[in-house]
Amino acid sequence: MCVICGCSTGTPGAVHQHSHDHRHGHGHGSDPAHAHHHDHGDLHYGQGPARVSVPGMSQARAIRLEADVLGANQRIADANRAHFAGHGVIAYNLVSSPGSGKTTLLCATIEALKVRAQGLPVGVIEGDQQTTNDADRIRATGAPAIQINTGKGCHLDAPMIAEAFARLPLHGHHHHHGQDHAHAADPSLLMIENVGNLVCPAMWDLGERAKIAILSVTEGEDKPIKYPDMFAAARLMVLTKVDLLPHLDFDVAQCIAFAQRVNPDIEVLLVSAKTGVGMDAWLDWLLQDLA
Predict the structure, then answer these.
(1) How confident is the model at residue 254 (pLDDT cuts 50, 70, 90)?
(2) 26 by DSSP, 3-state: which?
(3) SS3 state at 270
(4) Residue 198 in contact with residue 223, Cβ under 8 Å?
(5) All domains of the chain, ordered by start, with CATH?
(6) Percent of the chain with pLDDT over 90
(7) Which strand (E) or helix (H) includes residue 238?
(8) Residue 177 CB coordination number (10 Å)
(9) Among 145-149, 180-184, 255-259, which is the least confidently predicted range?
(10) 3-class DSSP state of 108
(11) Are strands 188-193 and 145-149 parallel, antiparallel or unpaired?
(12) Which ranges of the chain would DSSP assign to H, the alpha helix?
């Protein structure tokens, strides 16, 4: 996990290394950090208590480091959640692999909300390693967007969101600092498009109401069991690009079954932002959850 490899601390690979020639034979005993060998010689790292293997780091140290880093993030995520509530903002964290159609879905959603929910304030925080391409696409719809470039980082974190939110118009929509945060105004919508990555963003709370996993039908129906942490953390799975189904060998029922195996409570929607199929159901879900 990225908590251990260092991308969250600005010190990639910041672990004590030891070098020795592995050509000599030595037994590792029952160390759970080492890969488990099975009948076909497959390697299964992540079988130990920390669920990750890092050269030079014990399982106990990995667990302590993860607890420290995630604990610090969680405190800011909780503050974000309270801050959002004070401003009448409800946030959703869109997570997926690169190219799943998150930005296309967001652009279509913003345009559709202009009709379905006129006057609903919408803001977007975009996460990518580099460029402002996605934020530029969002701004072209008329919605405000802040781009976060993470550099070598593979996910957004709560401090990044706190800083980005302070730059959005939503930050001042319902509230001026110095006044009571409590209000009964209609909510505003904050969409956070995380860095394209089906592993690391799963464990990082940003202060959102829910994670929404976006999975395109071009990716393969086994993604939920290959990357279970992400789908276990999500409340909703949106299958995108369903207009391509006639041209693909993608088993929708099997994909849903895999997702429900990982997360029995996960909700599922099928959407094509290109043709509009499923967009009404997606907007219904969103607006009912905002209510």
Answers:
(1) very high
(2) coil
(3) strand
(4) yes
(5) 68-171+186-288 (3.40.50.300)
(6) 68
(7) strand 234-240
(8) 8
(9) 180-184
(10) helix
(11) unpaired
(12) 2-5, 59-86, 102-116, 133-139, 158-165, 223-226, 228-233, 252-262, 279-290
Sheet holding 122-128, edge to edge: 145-149, 122-128, 188-193, 89-95, 210-216, 234-240, 267-270
Residue with tokens 């106990």: 60
Query: What average pLDDT does range 238-264 have in this prediction?
Result: 99
Instruction: Provide the token pair at 274.
Output: 């290109």
Q: Report the distance separating Cα 211 and Cα 202, nearest Å.
A: 8
pLDDT of residue 69: 66
- Indicate the residue type of 90: I
Three-class secondary structure of residue 169 per DSSP = helix
Q: Are 50 and 66 in contact (CB under 8 A)?
A: yes
pTM of this prediction?
A: 0.80
What Å distances lie between residue 239 and 21, 83, 210, 228, CA to CA? 48, 31, 17, 16
Which amino acid, 45?
Y
Beta carbons within 8 Å of 76's beta carbon, 6+ residues apart:
157, 158, 159, 162, 207
Residue 222 pLDDT exceeds 90: yes
Give the Cα separation of 161 and 191 in Å (integer).
11
